[in-house]
Amino acid sequence: MIVNFSFVLLLFISVFVSSANAKATISISIRALNRSGDSVVIQWSGVDSPSNLDWLGLYSPPESPNDHFIGYKFLNESSTWKSGFGSISLPLTNLRSNYTFRIFRWSESEIDMKHQDHDQNPLPGTKHLLAESEQLSFGSGGVGMPEQIHLSFTDKVNTMRVMFVAGDGEERFVRYGEEKDLLGNSAAARGMRYEREHMCDSPANSTVGWRDPGWIYDTVMKNLNNGVRYYYQVGSESKGWSEIRSFIARDLYSEETVAFMFGDMGCATPYTTFIRTQDESIATVKWILRDIEALGDKPAFISHIGDISYARGYSWVWDEFFAQIEPIASKVAYHVCIGNHEYDFPAQPWKPDWAATTYGTDGGGECGVPYSLKFNMPGNSSEPTGTKAPPTRNLYYSYDMGSVHFLYISTETNFVKGGSQYEFIKRDLETVNREKTPFVVVQGHRPMYTTSNEVRDTMIRQKMVEHLEPLFVDNNVTLALWGHVHRYERFCPISNNTCGKQWPGSPVHLVIGMAGQDWQPIWQPRPNHPDVPIFPQPEQSMYRTGEFGYTRLVANKEKLTVSFVGNHDGEVHDTVEMLASGEVISGSKESTKVPNLKAVSASATLMRKSESNTLWYVKGAGLMVAGVVLGFIIGFFTRGKKSSSGNRWIPVKNEET
């Protein structure tokens, strides 16, 4: 047999060239998802000479420029990426516009250390687009179905507010009733929205950060019976209804109070984006959901005291946040107060000389607008922004729940003597009915007391002690809760930085900003050795830790108990009890079991339920940029889950090293 060598060689060259020039392709497993949280599998093939820097970008709306991605994933997260093909599964949030997915080639020589994200990591390059997928939608274009459902109290005990988001401004309703199969009551919802021109700075008003926020709907369920479970759903006949949810109405005659309280939670995303997101927030939501389900038919609420979503001007992060909290916020009232990452902007109207370096750009140009419209708290507090933006709302307000009076304040707007907020706080505290609510809890974002090394806020703390602490002391505030510092710390009953023996005249202060954000300051070093990493625990600080978690408040007319629950195991690791007599009982047993919440009484808290849920994705710890390209690449692609093993609690009066 005679073989034509020239023909074989030509065929080999032809196959080789065809393979070398094969065009990469990308496809998706489904063209439409039903609701937020549903997953799509993105598959690719034909990626020639794959490298660690090849990446997948998420885009919404589909016409977004290449550098205006929602987020990204590296192709090397697929086990087969080295062969030029692979797949990644992603749960997605409905942004009310379609998605597309694009894959890019990015080389080491193109790494631009001047083009960075919030954590100073280089953003991926978009010069070499390899392939783009078809569009992915949510239902009927993602427009009609209501999502991001959350509840809150109003000024009337026999009501409950419900808010949600949809993609258009057509009429929508809530229908509700005491029987799941008979939602006989209804109320029309008011739709509203904000625009890009309302944002006051970048990135919120830039083409990178802005996305259409949809329509925000707000309505109130009225004439509710005390302590009764109500079923409800939101939407319309023409656009579709949500799933039926339920909540327990407030009970005007109950003396029992249950609340879950924390600050600085943020949210997690299944992709990397321009800003840091908060993996630990998933565990916080998981354990609180366990606790709510353990309550049975007891009313409760959630209190999130500032630094809510950490969107910082990237509007889709607000969507991710509300999708994450919906399982708990649609069951119990979700209350908030404003933090620096919702509000602070260079031109904010109240910026005294002593706070000029404190109030900066932390709000990412949002100037409080998404916060003000996406929530609607009791009362009518507001302050003008001094820009095109609508007034900032939800600044200070109060309500009663069982045996406790709760007061929320703003540390980002004027709180000093002579201002409208100061007068509200003074009047509110002076008129509390202590026969009905013997305990008073004040909440705000920046702490009045902390032993963290937060030197930037020193003047604010001094002004809070000067102007607000006398009101707390004179009116016998029981407990003050603060966020901002991403740690848990409990102080003695304290006034003028001096421990007292009882809470009347010396409120107990807790810092509870440990719900998600993972940047943590050091504790204050020793004054005479500031460069030595030993941080003595002052006598005023009874317990402090770097563990993530949340607090649980349970009260009746005889006792108010606050417990710190750690995220790594869902168990109680610190407890303080405040008796109506004024006595404060401090305890911090390392392995306190979660008590039974269904039997809320003088001694009740929560029963731990078995829970097998795990994080739905593992996101790497932050990148530390190396001095050489090789070190950088190794660090970038070997990010692992932050370790939660080991005991990180600090015993009372011990030194942390």
UniProtKB/TrEMBL annotation:
It comes from the Eukaryota. Gene3D superfamilies: 3.60.21.10, Purple acid phosphatase-like, N-terminal. It is an enzyme of class 3 (hydrolase). InterPro entries: Calcineurin-like_PHP (IPR004843), Metallo-depent_PP-like (IPR029052), MPP_PAP (IPR041792), PAPs_C (IPR025733), PAPs_N (IPR015914), Purple_acid_Pase-like_N (IPR008963). It catalyses: a phosphate monoester + H2O = an alcohol + phosphate. Keywords: Glycoprotein, Hydrolase, Iron, Membrane, Metal-binding, Secreted, Signal, Transmembrane, Transmembrane helix, Zinc. Its main location: secreted. Its EC number is 3.1.3.2. Belongs to the metallophosphoesterase superfamily. Purple acid phosphatase family. This is Purple acid phosphatase. The gene is LOC104755683.
